[in-house]
Amino acid sequence: MDIIIKAESVDILLRREALAATDESIEPFQERLVTIQHEQIGTITDTQLTTGNFFLAHSSFQLTQPIQVIEEVEQEVIQLHFALQGDSLAQPGGKSTQQRFSTGQHNVCYLPQSKSVYAYPAATQSLDYTAIIIPKDVYTRLIPAGSELYRHLGPLITQQKARFCNAKNLPITPSMEWLIRDMRSSHRTGSLKRLFLESRTTELLLLQLEQMQGTSLVVSSKKADTNKIHEARELLDARYPDSPTIVELARLVGLNEFNLKRGFKEQMGTTILGYITQRRMEDARRFLLEGDKSISEISYWVGYKNPAHFTVAFKHYFGMLPSTVRQQGSNTHP
Questions:
Q1: pLDDT tens sequence across 72-101
Q2: For the residues 195-224, what does the mean pLDDT come to?
Q3: CB atoms within 10 A of CB 251
Q4: What is the CA radius of gyration of the chain?
């Protein structure tokens, strides 16, 4: 399956990829870093990985003018979209139906053989996106047609309609973001990296479908409140690990505590405390696997003044001691 993406205004080939899922002659794991610097459009950095079953692209755009990107697929695929930072406009299959993405949103799309158009605006800050493409036969092995989860894409596949699963994009949860960051920062190579990326991709798909199952239960917030919830998350990230209290956070974003806590849970899929804890624990796990810091240093770095309290919290969260995870990192990186 070929995937061809061009920056339309200057006609630059960004990707051309053959997935190995249906062709055993293709090398099962490939990794490339493509950097394009163009005086008219700016800089595009694209990390491209083929695992054999999936194609992943982590893209960073620093654009001095708006561009349109054309994506061609030559067989049926499912595409996972994650807008970590920045706005874009997607036209799956080149149809008139458009899907607008903003920072912190995701969705799943079905594409038959077709061309899709993506519009990216000029921006002072980098645009940050991750896209994962799964051939339909791989997807149906993961999610059989008789499965309850298949209903999200089943009608689109049957009708060969290029369209997103959800009419409204869903918020990227902390768990999703952590998985993407973990995939990007992995130092594994070869077959180990291929297995790691495929397992992480399956986890991401699971989290997306799991969230989609509960969308009918989510109470929509007012747009102004939604913006304030995202502002609250940005403040938590900016002041991490010394996070503000809920009272202080509510005052900073202009919401009462009840609406802040309820809206945060609806939009982010976790509580404020859960978000902070998850961020601390996942960073701690990454530091332990990297092996550059002592456990006491890691404890302080993620916001615990007492290493013993950190150890208790870590074991409660992961079910194992920090020293055990440190040993796993040592075994992975001899």
A1: 888 899 999 999 999 999 999 877 678 999
A2: 76
A3: 14
A4: 21
The string of DSSP codes covering 76-101 is: -EEEEEEEEES-EEEEGGG-S--EEE
Cβ–Cβ under 8 Å, residues 88 and 69: no
Q: What length does the chain have?
A: 334
- Positive or negative, the CA dihedral 34, 73, 6, 96 is negative
How far the first Cα of the chain sits from its last, in Å, is 37
| Angle at CA of residue 49, ends 35 and 9, nearest 5° | 40
CA distances (Å), origin 192, targets 71, 133, 186? 29, 20, 10
| Separate counts of helices (H) and strands (E) for the chain | 11, 14
In order, the DSSP letters of 259-281 are HHHHHHHHHHSS-HHHHHHHHHH
| 8 A C-beta contact, residue 246 and residue 264 | no
Q: Which residue has the tokens 């996942």?
A: 282
| In the chain, % of residues over pLDDT 90 | 34
Q: What does the pLDDT read at residue 124?
A: 79
Dihedral (CA of 107, 113, 119, 124) sign:
positive
- The pTM score is 0.69
pLDDT of 9 over the 80 cut: no
- Structural contact between residues 292 and 304, judged by C-beta atoms closer than 8 angstroms: no
CB 142, CB 205: distance < 8 Å: yes
Q: What is the pLDDT of residues 255-277, one digit of tens each?
A: 888 889 888 887 777 889 988 88
Residue 24 predicted with pLDDT over 60: no
pLDDT of residue 5: 64
Q: What is the Cβ-side half-sphere exposure of residue 103, based on CA atoms within 13 angstroms?
A: 13
Beta strand residue intervals within the chain, DSSP E? 3-7, 12-16, 30-38, 42-50, 55-63, 67-73, 77-85, 88-91, 99-101, 105-111, 114-120, 127-135, 163-164, 170-171
